[in-house]
Protein backbone atom coordinates (compact mmCIF):
# COMPACT_ATOMS: atom_id res chain seq x y z
CA UNK A 1 0.00 0.00 0.00
CA UNK A 2 1.54 3.32 -1.08
CA UNK A 3 0.53 6.88 -0.27
CA UNK A 4 0.03 8.81 -3.52
CA UNK A 5 -1.44 12.21 -4.39
CA UNK A 6 -5.18 11.99 -3.92
CA UNK A 7 -5.19 8.90 -1.73
CA UNK A 8 -3.65 5.39 -1.55
CA UNK A 9 -2.50 2.92 -4.16
CA UNK A 10 -2.86 -0.82 -3.63
CA UNK A 11 -0.42 -2.84 -5.75
CA UNK A 12 0.28 -6.50 -6.41
CA UNK A 13 1.67 -8.79 -9.09
CA UNK A 14 -0.80 -11.17 -10.70
CA UNK A 15 -0.34 -14.06 -13.14
CA UNK A 16 -3.12 -13.55 -15.64
CA UNK A 17 -5.08 -16.20 -17.54
CA UNK A 18 -2.72 -15.91 -20.50
CA UNK A 19 0.18 -16.91 -18.26
CA UNK A 20 1.78 -13.46 -18.16
CA UNK A 21 2.51 -11.92 -14.72
CA UNK A 22 1.45 -8.30 -14.56
CA UNK A 23 1.49 -5.50 -12.02
CA UNK A 24 -2.04 -4.58 -10.95
CA UNK A 25 -2.78 -1.36 -9.10
CA UNK A 26 -5.87 0.44 -7.89
CA UNK A 27 -5.97 3.94 -6.41
CA UNK A 28 -8.67 5.21 -4.09
CA UNK A 29 -9.02 7.98 -1.45
CA UNK A 30 -8.58 5.58 1.49
CA UNK A 31 -6.56 2.47 2.21
CA UNK A 32 -9.65 0.32 2.63
CA UNK A 33 -11.23 1.51 -0.61
CA UNK A 34 -8.00 0.89 -2.54
CA UNK A 35 -7.64 -2.59 -1.07
CA UNK A 36 -11.27 -3.45 -1.87
CA UNK A 37 -10.98 -2.16 -5.42
CA UNK A 38 -7.89 -4.26 -6.02
CA UNK A 39 -9.50 -7.34 -4.50
CA UNK A 40 -12.59 -6.92 -6.66
CA UNK A 41 -10.49 -6.57 -9.79
CA UNK A 42 -8.46 -9.67 -8.98
CA UNK A 43 -11.64 -11.63 -8.29
CA UNK A 44 -12.89 -10.66 -11.71
CA UNK A 45 -9.61 -11.70 -13.32
CA UNK A 46 -9.64 -15.02 -11.51
CA UNK A 47 -12.90 -15.97 -13.13
CA UNK A 48 -12.90 -14.99 -16.81
CA UNK A 49 -15.84 -16.48 -18.69
CA UNK A 50 -17.26 -16.85 -22.14
CA UNK A 51 -20.20 -14.69 -23.19
CA UNK A 52 -18.72 -11.87 -21.03
CA UNK A 53 -19.75 -13.82 -17.91
CA UNK A 54 -17.51 -13.18 -14.90
CA UNK A 55 -17.68 -13.66 -11.17
CA UNK A 56 -18.96 -10.09 -10.95
CA UNK A 57 -21.76 -10.74 -13.44
CA UNK A 58 -25.29 -10.69 -12.01
CA UNK A 59 -27.15 -13.96 -11.73
CA UNK A 60 -29.76 -12.61 -14.13
CA UNK A 61 -27.16 -12.61 -16.90
CA UNK A 62 -26.33 -16.25 -16.26
CA UNK A 63 -30.05 -17.09 -16.21
CA UNK A 64 -30.49 -15.39 -19.60
CA UNK A 65 -27.63 -17.37 -21.10
CA UNK A 66 -28.93 -20.62 -19.61
CA UNK A 67 -32.41 -20.06 -21.03
CA UNK A 68 -30.90 -19.38 -24.45
CA UNK A 69 -28.96 -22.62 -24.13
CA UNK A 70 -32.15 -24.49 -23.21
CA UNK A 71 -33.76 -23.35 -26.46
CA UNK A 72 -31.40 -25.64 -28.35
CA UNK A 73 -31.98 -28.62 -26.02
CA UNK A 74 -35.16 -29.87 -27.73
CA UNK A 75 -37.30 -29.20 -24.67
CA UNK A 76 -41.09 -29.20 -24.91
CA UNK A 77 -42.27 -25.65 -25.58
CA UNK A 78 -44.43 -25.64 -22.44
CA UNK A 79 -41.44 -26.65 -20.31
CA UNK A 80 -39.29 -23.87 -21.74
CA UNK A 81 -42.14 -21.39 -21.32
CA UNK A 82 -42.53 -22.40 -17.67
CA UNK A 83 -38.79 -21.92 -17.05
CA UNK A 84 -39.02 -18.43 -18.55
CA UNK A 85 -42.06 -17.56 -16.43
CA UNK A 86 -40.36 -18.66 -13.21
CA UNK A 87 -37.17 -16.78 -14.16
CA UNK A 88 -39.07 -13.60 -15.02
CA UNK A 89 -41.55 -13.66 -12.15
CA UNK A 90 -39.43 -15.04 -9.32
CA UNK A 91 -35.72 -15.76 -9.89
CA UNK A 92 -34.69 -12.47 -11.48
CA UNK A 93 -36.66 -10.23 -9.08
CA UNK A 94 -35.44 -12.23 -6.08
CA UNK A 95 -31.85 -13.09 -6.99
CA UNK A 96 -31.11 -11.52 -10.37
CA UNK A 97 -29.04 -8.58 -9.07
CA UNK A 98 -26.84 -10.80 -6.87
CA UNK A 99 -23.35 -11.24 -8.34
CA UNK A 100 -22.25 -14.76 -9.12
CA UNK A 101 -19.45 -14.59 -6.55
CA UNK A 102 -22.06 -13.64 -3.94
CA UNK A 103 -24.21 -16.71 -4.64
CA UNK A 104 -23.38 -18.60 -1.47
CA UNK A 105 -25.13 -21.73 -0.26
CA UNK A 106 -26.78 -19.99 2.73
CA UNK A 107 -28.03 -17.16 0.53
CA UNK A 108 -29.43 -19.46 -2.12
CA UNK A 109 -31.02 -21.78 0.43
CA UNK A 110 -32.69 -18.86 2.23
CA UNK A 111 -34.14 -17.67 -1.07
CA UNK A 112 -35.51 -21.10 -2.04
CA UNK A 113 -36.89 -21.64 1.45
CA UNK A 114 -38.63 -18.24 1.38
CA UNK A 115 -40.07 -18.87 -2.07
CA UNK A 116 -41.47 -22.19 -0.95
CA UNK A 117 -43.13 -20.57 2.08
CA UNK A 118 -44.68 -17.69 0.15
CA UNK A 119 -45.43 -19.10 -3.31
CA UNK A 120 -45.35 -22.87 -2.94
CA UNK A 121 -43.17 -25.94 -3.35
CA UNK A 122 -43.76 -26.52 -7.11
CA UNK A 123 -42.58 -23.01 -8.02
CA UNK A 124 -39.68 -23.21 -5.55
CA UNK A 125 -38.53 -26.45 -7.14
CA UNK A 126 -38.63 -24.91 -10.63
CA UNK A 127 -36.74 -21.86 -9.35
CA UNK A 128 -34.11 -24.19 -7.92
CA UNK A 129 -33.83 -25.88 -11.34
CA UNK A 130 -33.37 -22.53 -13.09
CA UNK A 131 -30.74 -21.36 -10.61
CA UNK A 132 -28.92 -24.67 -10.67
CA UNK A 133 -28.78 -24.59 -14.47
CA UNK A 134 -27.62 -20.97 -14.57
CA UNK A 135 -24.89 -21.48 -11.94
CA UNK A 136 -23.80 -24.71 -13.59
CA UNK A 137 -23.35 -22.78 -16.84
CA UNK A 138 -21.37 -20.12 -14.95
CA UNK A 139 -19.16 -22.89 -13.55
CA UNK A 140 -18.53 -24.35 -17.00
CA UNK A 141 -17.55 -20.89 -18.25
CA UNK A 142 -15.11 -20.40 -15.40
CA UNK A 143 -17.04 -17.66 -13.59
CA UNK A 144 -17.41 -19.89 -10.53
CA UNK A 145 -15.17 -22.57 -9.10
CA UNK A 146 -18.15 -24.85 -8.40
CA UNK A 147 -21.93 -24.78 -8.48
CA UNK A 148 -23.18 -23.81 -5.00
CA UNK A 149 -26.68 -25.08 -5.79
CA UNK A 150 -25.32 -28.62 -5.40
CA UNK A 151 -25.28 -28.10 -1.64
CA UNK A 152 -28.69 -26.41 -1.45
CA UNK A 153 -31.37 -28.73 -0.09
CA UNK A 154 -33.81 -30.04 -2.65
CA UNK A 155 -37.49 -29.12 -2.68
CA UNK A 156 -39.92 -31.93 -2.05
CA UNK A 157 -43.37 -31.52 -3.53
CA UNK A 158 -45.90 -33.53 -1.59
CA UNK A 159 -48.09 -35.37 -4.02
CA UNK A 160 -51.64 -36.19 -3.05
CA UNK A 161 -53.03 -39.58 -3.85
CA UNK A 162 -55.02 -39.55 -7.12
CA UNK A 163 -58.70 -38.81 -6.60
CA UNK A 164 -61.48 -39.93 -8.93
CA UNK A 165 -65.06 -38.78 -9.16
CA UNK A 166 -67.95 -41.16 -8.64
CA UNK A 167 -70.32 -41.97 -11.48
CA UNK A 168 -72.98 -39.84 -9.77
CA UNK A 169 -70.58 -36.89 -9.58
CA UNK A 170 -69.77 -37.19 -13.28
CA UNK A 171 -73.46 -37.21 -14.09
CA UNK A 172 -73.90 -34.14 -11.89
CA UNK A 173 -71.12 -32.39 -13.81
CA UNK A 174 -72.82 -33.07 -17.12
CA UNK A 175 -76.20 -31.99 -15.76
CA UNK A 176 -74.73 -28.73 -14.45
CA UNK A 177 -73.16 -27.96 -17.82
CA UNK A 178 -76.42 -28.71 -19.66
CA UNK A 179 -78.29 -26.36 -17.32
CA UNK A 180 -75.66 -23.64 -17.79
CA UNK A 181 -75.69 -23.97 -21.57
CA UNK A 182 -79.48 -23.64 -21.69
CA UNK A 183 -80.39 -20.99 -19.11
CA UNK A 184 -84.11 -20.49 -18.49
CA UNK A 185 -85.76 -17.51 -20.21
CA UNK A 186 -86.28 -14.27 -18.34
CA UNK A 187 -89.47 -13.92 -16.36
CA UNK A 188 -90.71 -11.25 -18.74
CA UNK A 189 -90.14 -13.53 -21.72
CA UNK A 190 -87.53 -11.25 -23.29
CA UNK A 191 -84.25 -12.72 -24.59
CA UNK A 192 -81.28 -12.57 -22.27
CA UNK A 193 -78.62 -10.00 -22.98
CA UNK A 194 -75.01 -10.74 -23.73
CA UNK A 195 -73.22 -13.25 -25.87
CA UNK A 196 -74.91 -16.67 -26.03
CA UNK A 197 -73.15 -19.31 -24.00
CA UNK A 198 -71.05 -21.82 -25.90
CA UNK A 199 -72.70 -25.17 -26.50
CA UNK A 200 -69.32 -26.83 -27.03
CA UNK A 201 -68.43 -27.06 -23.35
CA UNK A 202 -70.31 -30.31 -22.76
CA UNK A 203 -68.99 -31.79 -26.00
CA UNK A 204 -65.37 -31.21 -24.97
CA UNK A 205 -66.05 -32.65 -21.51
CA UNK A 206 -67.58 -35.71 -23.18
CA UNK A 207 -64.44 -36.14 -25.30
CA UNK A 208 -62.34 -36.11 -22.11
CA UNK A 209 -64.68 -38.66 -20.52
CA UNK A 210 -64.42 -40.85 -23.63
CA UNK A 211 -60.65 -40.67 -24.09
CA UNK A 212 -59.04 -39.48 -20.83
CA UNK A 213 -57.38 -36.75 -22.90
CA UNK A 214 -55.68 -33.77 -21.34
CA UNK A 215 -57.52 -30.51 -21.96
CA UNK A 216 -55.00 -29.35 -24.57
CA UNK A 217 -55.34 -32.69 -26.36
CA UNK A 218 -59.14 -32.60 -26.24
CA UNK A 219 -59.15 -29.18 -27.91
CA UNK A 220 -56.65 -30.15 -30.63
CA UNK A 221 -58.43 -32.73 -32.89
CA UNK A 222 -58.93 -31.78 -36.55
CA UNK A 223 -61.75 -33.00 -38.75
CA UNK A 224 -59.60 -34.14 -41.65
CA UNK A 225 -56.78 -35.79 -39.71
CA UNK A 226 -58.15 -37.06 -36.40
CA UNK A 227 -61.86 -37.85 -36.86
CA UNK A 228 -63.21 -40.85 -38.76
CA UNK A 229 -66.98 -40.83 -38.36
CA UNK A 230 -67.44 -43.89 -40.54
CA UNK A 231 -65.05 -45.97 -38.40
CA UNK A 232 -66.21 -44.23 -35.22
CA UNK A 233 -62.71 -43.24 -34.09
CA UNK A 234 -60.97 -40.18 -32.68
CA UNK A 235 -57.18 -39.92 -32.71
CA UNK A 236 -55.34 -37.97 -30.03
CA UNK A 237 -52.30 -36.87 -32.01
CA UNK A 238 -51.36 -33.45 -30.70
CA UNK A 239 -52.03 -30.76 -28.16
CA UNK A 240 -52.32 -26.99 -27.90
CA UNK A 241 -49.27 -25.07 -26.81
CA UNK A 242 -47.93 -21.51 -26.61
CA UNK A 243 -45.03 -20.13 -28.59
CA UNK A 244 -42.13 -18.58 -26.71
CA UNK A 245 -42.32 -15.34 -28.68
CA UNK A 246 -43.79 -12.08 -27.35
CA UNK A 247 -46.69 -11.79 -27.53
CA UNK A 248 -47.12 -15.56 -27.15
CA UNK A 249 -49.28 -17.29 -29.75
CA UNK A 250 -51.43 -20.37 -29.22
CA UNK A 251 -50.90 -23.09 -31.81
CA UNK A 252 -51.49 -26.80 -32.39
CA UNK A 253 -48.43 -28.89 -31.54
CA UNK A 254 -48.37 -31.99 -33.74
CA UNK A 255 -47.30 -34.32 -30.96
CA UNK A 256 -48.56 -35.09 -27.48
CA UNK A 257 -46.94 -34.20 -24.16
CA UNK A 258 -43.55 -35.81 -23.85
CA UNK A 259 -43.74 -36.81 -27.53
CA UNK A 260 -45.99 -39.74 -26.57
CA UNK A 261 -47.46 -41.94 -29.29
CA UNK A 262 -50.74 -41.13 -30.99
CA UNK A 263 -53.72 -42.97 -29.51
CA UNK A 264 -56.72 -44.01 -31.62
CA UNK A 265 -59.93 -44.26 -29.56
CA UNK A 266 -62.96 -46.24 -30.65
CA UNK A 267 -65.94 -44.13 -29.64
CA UNK A 268 -69.31 -45.01 -28.17
CA UNK A 269 -72.47 -44.27 -30.18
CA UNK A 270 -73.06 -41.22 -27.99
CA UNK A 271 -69.73 -39.67 -29.01
CA UNK A 272 -70.16 -40.59 -32.69
CA UNK A 273 -73.61 -38.94 -32.69
CA UNK A 274 -72.21 -35.82 -31.02
CA UNK A 275 -69.34 -35.49 -33.50
CA UNK A 276 -71.66 -36.14 -36.43
CA UNK A 277 -73.94 -33.35 -35.25
CA UNK A 278 -71.01 -30.98 -34.86
CA UNK A 279 -69.67 -31.91 -38.29
CA UNK A 280 -73.02 -31.24 -39.97
CA UNK A 281 -73.33 -27.87 -38.22
CA UNK A 282 -69.67 -26.88 -38.47
CA UNK A 283 -69.05 -23.44 -39.96
CA UNK A 284 -65.44 -24.25 -40.73
CA UNK A 285 -62.33 -22.59 -39.37
CA UNK A 286 -58.84 -21.98 -40.74
CA UNK A 287 -57.31 -24.65 -38.49
CA UNK A 288 -59.86 -27.40 -39.27
CA UNK A 289 -60.47 -27.74 -35.52
CA UNK A 290 -63.35 -29.75 -34.11
CA UNK A 291 -63.56 -27.37 -31.14
CA UNK A 292 -62.46 -23.89 -32.21
CA UNK A 293 -62.90 -20.75 -30.14
CA UNK A 294 -65.78 -18.44 -30.98
CA UNK A 295 -63.58 -16.51 -33.44
CA UNK A 296 -62.40 -19.67 -35.20
CA UNK A 297 -58.98 -19.64 -33.54
CA UNK A 298 -57.59 -22.17 -31.08
CA UNK A 299 -59.55 -22.38 -27.82
CA UNK A 300 -57.26 -21.29 -25.00
CA UNK A 301 -57.10 -24.01 -22.33
CA UNK A 302 -57.20 -21.41 -19.55
CA UNK A 303 -60.33 -19.85 -21.02
CA UNK A 304 -61.88 -23.31 -21.21
CA UNK A 305 -61.11 -23.92 -17.53
CA UNK A 306 -62.69 -20.59 -16.58
CA UNK A 307 -65.80 -21.40 -18.60
CA UNK A 308 -66.05 -24.84 -17.03
CA UNK A 309 -65.68 -23.35 -13.56
CA UNK A 310 -68.43 -20.82 -14.28
CA UNK A 311 -70.74 -23.60 -15.47
CA UNK A 312 -70.12 -25.80 -12.43
CA UNK A 313 -70.17 -23.11 -9.75
CA UNK A 314 -74.00 -22.89 -9.42
CA UNK A 315 -74.03 -26.62 -8.63
CA UNK A 316 -71.21 -26.34 -6.08
CA UNK A 317 -68.87 -28.31 -8.34
CA UNK A 318 -66.41 -25.58 -9.33
CA UNK A 319 -63.57 -27.54 -7.69
CA UNK A 320 -63.73 -30.13 -10.48
CA UNK A 321 -61.10 -29.62 -13.19
CA UNK A 322 -60.48 -31.32 -16.55
CA UNK A 323 -57.64 -33.22 -14.89
CA UNK A 324 -60.08 -34.62 -12.31
CA UNK A 325 -62.06 -36.03 -15.23
CA UNK A 326 -58.91 -37.55 -16.72
CA UNK A 327 -58.14 -39.30 -13.44
CA UNK A 328 -61.73 -40.49 -13.19
CA UNK A 329 -61.57 -42.16 -16.60
CA UNK A 330 -58.25 -43.83 -15.74
CA UNK A 331 -59.65 -45.13 -12.46
CA UNK A 332 -62.83 -46.52 -14.00
CA UNK A 333 -60.91 -48.29 -16.77
CA UNK A 334 -58.46 -49.72 -14.24
CA UNK A 335 -61.27 -51.14 -12.11
CA UNK A 336 -62.98 -52.74 -15.07
CA UNK A 337 -60.16 -53.66 -17.45
CA UNK A 338 -56.98 -53.38 -15.39
CA UNK A 339 -54.05 -50.99 -15.09
CA UNK A 340 -52.54 -51.83 -18.47
CA UNK A 341 -55.76 -50.89 -20.27
CA UNK A 342 -55.98 -47.66 -18.26
CA UNK A 343 -52.42 -46.73 -19.22
CA UNK A 344 -53.05 -47.49 -22.90
CA UNK A 345 -56.22 -45.38 -22.96
CA UNK A 346 -54.29 -42.47 -21.43
CA UNK A 347 -51.21 -42.96 -23.57
CA UNK A 348 -49.00 -43.32 -20.50
CA UNK A 349 -46.91 -46.05 -18.92
CA UNK A 350 -48.46 -48.24 -16.25
CA UNK A 351 -46.19 -46.68 -13.63
CA UNK A 352 -47.31 -43.14 -14.49
CA UNK A 353 -50.94 -44.22 -14.51
CA UNK A 354 -50.57 -45.93 -11.13
CA UNK A 355 -48.71 -43.08 -9.42
CA UNK A 356 -50.57 -40.08 -10.79
CA UNK A 357 -53.97 -41.04 -12.13
CA UNK A 358 -55.55 -44.22 -10.83
CA UNK A 359 -57.24 -43.84 -7.45
CA UNK A 360 -56.04 -46.43 -4.98
CA UNK A 361 -58.55 -49.02 -3.93
CA UNK A 362 -59.81 -48.73 -0.38
CA UNK A 363 -61.87 -51.93 -0.49
CA UNK A 364 -59.88 -55.14 -0.38
CA UNK A 365 -60.89 -57.82 -2.90
CA UNK A 366 -63.28 -60.51 -1.72
CA UNK A 367 -60.95 -63.42 -0.89
CA UNK A 368 -63.08 -65.14 1.74
CA UNK A 369 -63.04 -68.45 -0.12
CA UNK A 370 -59.23 -68.47 -0.03
CA UNK A 371 -58.87 -67.56 3.62
CA UNK A 372 -61.73 -69.61 5.06
CA UNK A 373 -59.42 -72.64 5.29
CA UNK A 374 -57.67 -71.05 8.24
CA UNK A 375 -60.79 -71.48 10.33
CA UNK A 376 -61.74 -75.03 9.37
Automatic annotation (TrEMBL):
Q: Which InterPro entries match?
A: DNA_brk_join_enz, Integrase-like_cat_sf, Integrase_catalytic, Integrase_recombinase_N, Tyrosine_recombinase_XerCD
Instruction: Return the PROSITE patterns for the record.
Output: TYR_RECOMBINASE
Q: Which residues form the Tyr recombinase domain?
A: 160-376
Query: Keywords of this protein's UniProt record, alphabetized?
Result: DNA recombination, DNA-binding
* A family per Pfam: Phage_integrase
| Family membership | Belongs to the 'phage' integrase family.
Q: What is this protein called?
A: Tyrosine-type recombinase/integrase
Q: What species is this protein from? A: Brachybacterium rhamnosum
Amino acid sequence: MTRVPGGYQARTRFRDVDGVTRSVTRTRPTKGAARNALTEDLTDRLAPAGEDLTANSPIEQAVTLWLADRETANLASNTLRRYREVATDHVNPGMGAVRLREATVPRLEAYIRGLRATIGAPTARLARTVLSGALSLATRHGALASNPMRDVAGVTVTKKDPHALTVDQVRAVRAAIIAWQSPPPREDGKPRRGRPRTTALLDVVDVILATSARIGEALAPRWSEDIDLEAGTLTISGTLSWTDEKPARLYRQDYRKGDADHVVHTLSPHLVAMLTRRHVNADGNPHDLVFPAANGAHWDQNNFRKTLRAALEPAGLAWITPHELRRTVATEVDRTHGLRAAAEVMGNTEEVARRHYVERRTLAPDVRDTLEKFFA
